[in-house]
Amino acid sequence: MSGDEMPWNTRPANTGNLILIGMMATGKSSVGAVLAEQLGYELVDLDHEIIRKEGRSVSEIFAEEGEGYFRAVETEVLRQTVQSSRQVIATGGGAVLAPVNRGMMIENGIVVALSATAEDIISRVAGDNKRPLLAGNAEERVRRILEERKDAYSFAHCTVDTTDLSAAQVSLHILMHYRVLAFKHVG
Predict the structure, then answer these.
(1) Which CATH number do you get for residue 99?
(2) Is 128 annotated as a binding residue?
(3) Domain, as residue range, for 26
(4) Is 156 annotated as a binding residue?
(5) According to the annotation, is 143 in a ligand binding site?
(6) Distance CA 145, CA 104 (A)
(7) Is 154 annotated as a binding residue?
(8) Is 141 marked as binding a ligand?
């Protein structure tokens, strides 16, 4: 492979979407809003789309239907969303768990993983009772989920550590990566 060629997982068919993945509280929604404004793209927050489709909160969906149902709806909403382009798509933290979702993401945009230290995530979610996966001991749950998902975000085209950075700083890092990756896919 020459230096100009890229591995298969860095060749999206559609570079018109910028897809943000990562653990909860890594800044996907807030960074997504900044990026959408800077790029002139539409912001699509998958969790908000699921809430709109279902007419109830994520916590209510988890409580009433279970995580399996939520993940199925998440896949359906993602499938509909990636049909368009010129979007910044902020996914839920667990959207990467389904292989079909990872495939849709990598085929339909530039995928950027946002990461943060466990301590930073814990401080960001402190007192947040709207995250169903954190019921009980939030610190213990965050560490367990991080361990379980440590390789789940590795398919991304690049990773940006959001620890101690503002949404504007993170978006600047992402824009540099995005423009380079999108340019390599043109022509």
Answers:
(1) 3.40.50.300
(2) no
(3) 13-185
(4) no
(5) no
(6) 23
(7) no
(8) no
